[in-house]
Amino acid sequence: MARDKDNLYGMKFRGNERWMQFLDPYRTIGELNAIEQQKLDRHPYEVVDAILTRYSKEGPGAIAAIPGEVERLKWAGIYPQKQGGDAFMLRIKVPGGFLTAAQFRAIGVVADAFAEGPDGTESAVFGAKYADITTRQSIQLHWIRMEDIPRIWQRFHDVGLTTLQACGDGLRNVLSCPVSGVDAHEAFDGLPIAQQVSAFFTGNRDYANLPRKFKVSITGCVEDCAQAEINDIGLWPARAEDGTLGFNVLAGGGLSDGERMASDLDIFVSQDQTVELTRAIAQAFGELGNRENRGLARMRYLVQELGPEGFRQAIAERAHFELTTAGEDLTKRYRGDHVGVHAQKQPGLVYVGCSVPVGRMSGLELVEVARLAETYGDGTVRTGTDQNFILTGVPEKRLD
Hints:
Radius of gyration: 21 Å
Order of helices and strands: EEHHHHHEEEHEEHHEEEEHHEEEEHEE
Distance between the termini: 46 Å
Oligomer: single chain
């Protein structure tokens, strides 16, 4: 297959690497941490071409020979496994947890064909050749070999999937309610907006070198199954004084070290302003975030330092529209899962949420779920932050 450098197996790059110029003075005075130095020396996206032209042929040893290259693998959705050797984890972006049956099947086929560990690594419960649904609605595969990645990327490209920027210091998978568009009680369908935000950032060099990972939740669901309060940016449904439906904005949430619930920024954005808002926030994070101490680089530390008012001002200085105050908050409660059978807003249809132990499924199970989605549902599969999957568009009469 002929390859274009800016369209490598569907991985389209754009932008002019604004952070290179912005951060260059830090390099000369030695204030950047080691990983920031490595990202300036070689843009992380360059690893994609190197995987296709070198590493898939020469093996992991060629990666280790280039300083910082193991870290750059994350921008291609790849982590080395702790087992070492030629074992890698590959993560697939699934914005809002929405997949077609063809995409779900392709992941299952890849898992069965390529995600197999050496003898002795099989699980007594799950066997080998499996995939994991993650708490960010992504799907990841283990025991992937570098030599197989070009073929895997080609299979994913053929069905519209990418692993680009599923990891690394940029926008991670954007969360949304997994039953967006079918939930009988949602304020509005937030999935298309989550997909627009993901499309803007994925492959965009201007926003691919942030101080740390950037996690966003966007939902029109009134039950917050997309966990807005523990994301760097949480957009949940609200109503402006004139009745416009959009989002109130939270910022600075997160778990792991330095746990913090997101702060209310007193901002309302309409649905068509969402991409620009997230761009402005990413710009503020890129310019003001901590690049000296990686342990304090997550956006929640910046929000804590500036305070909600100071962070709001930083956004106002960068956004290409005037910020307005928060509207009426429409979120009612937190919902942990969508397991079970539930009526959709579309008459006569239900969605069926299925529990997946620890989010792990064999490749053949994924293929079977794709068949069920096409046979009984609307041909889509949704993944949730609870690591379960949902089939939508199932006629009530077919439940028996």
